[in-house]
């Protein structure tokens, strides 16, 4: 597997080795020792999948005070996946990195604790997969506005399909430093 750093320290793009022939393909989505060698030595405690149609934007989400690290990939379809550094003391605070993930390139994105995460579905339908370092806790679930001008993610859409929660999410500047990861 090939691991590349993104423009945000800690956020990594992973290109798994894919074995394929005329019948289809096979790849390992996770093997502890290989990812540990790549600097991702986390134990995952929860696996999630979501299915969404074109134009659905999920995010920008994070948990606090129990932040989650996430290893994400797409098993069907294509998305633009985004990570945002929301650690107030970070020199990269408010900066974002993005990668296109799809069922052809099989790339994964590692989003460490301390980052918000979101994705936009670019294909007709997409199945998005997550391995998380901590369990989801509804009481710690937080959202930041997808179109926050301070972050200024270059989403290729003006009017995404949003959940009620995401449509009313506050801007990053509305959070105090004790409401964000350290």
Provide key terms for this protein.
182 residues, mainly beta, Jelly Rolls, 5-stranded antiparallel β-sheet, 2 helices, 13 strands, globular
Q: Your description of this structure?
A:
The chain has a single domain (2-19, 28-173), classed as Jelly Rolls, CATH 2.60.120.10. The mean pLDDT is 96. The radius of gyration is 16 Å and the shape is globular. 5% of the residues lie in helices and 41% in strands. The chain is mostly beta strands and 182 residues long. It starts with a strand and ends in a 15-residue tail after the last helix. β3 (18-21) and β4 (24-27) form a beta hairpin. It has helices at 32-37, 164-167; strands at residues 2-5, 12-15, 18-21, 24-27, 46-53, 57-63, 70-76, 78-85, 96-102, 108-111, 115-121, 125-132, 141-143.
What's a concise summary of this model?
The chain has helices spanning 32-37, 164-167; strands at residues 2-5, 12-15, 18-21, 24-27, 46-53, 57-63, 70-76, 78-85, 96-102, 108-111, 115-121, 125-132, 141-143.
Please identify the top-level CATH class. Answer: Mainly Beta
Estimate percent helicity. under 10%
Estimate nothing, just give the exact number of structural domains.
Answer: 1
Rounded to the nearest angstrom, the distance between the terminal CA atoms is: 31 Å
Low-confidence stretches: none
Secondary-structure blueprint:
Elements (H helix, E strand, L loop, with lengths): L1 E4 L6 E4 L2 E4 L2 E4 L4 H6 L8 E8 L3 E7 L6 E7 L1 E8 L10 E7 L5 E4 L3 E7 L3 E8 L8 E3 L20 H4 L15
Antiparallel strand pairs: 1-2, 2-10, 3-4, 5-12, 6-11, 6-13, 7-10, 7-12, 8-9, 8-11
């Amino acid at each position: 597997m090939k691991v590349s750093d993104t423009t945000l320290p800690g956020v990594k793009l992973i290109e798994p080795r894919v074995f394929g022939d005329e019948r289809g393909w096979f790849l390992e989505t996770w093997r502890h020792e290989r990812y540990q060698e790549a600097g991702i030595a986390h134990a995952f405690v929860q696996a999630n999948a979501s299915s969404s149609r074109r134009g659905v934007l999920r995010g920008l989400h994070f948990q606090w005070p129990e932040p989650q690290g996430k290893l994400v990939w797409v098993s069907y379809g294509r998305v633009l996946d985004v990570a945002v550094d929301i650690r107030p003391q970070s020199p990269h605070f408010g900066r974002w990195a993005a990668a296109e993930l799809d069922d052809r390139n099989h790339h994964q994105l590692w989003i460490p604790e301390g980052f918000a995460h979101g994705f936009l579905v670019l294909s007709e339908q997409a199945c998005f997969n997550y391995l998380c370092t901590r369990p989801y806790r509804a009481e710690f679930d937080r959202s930041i506005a997808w179109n926050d001008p301070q972050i200024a993610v270059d989403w290729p859409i003006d009017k995404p399909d949003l959940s009620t929660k995401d449509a009313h999410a506050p801007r990053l500047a509305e959070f105090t430093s004790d409401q964000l990861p350290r």
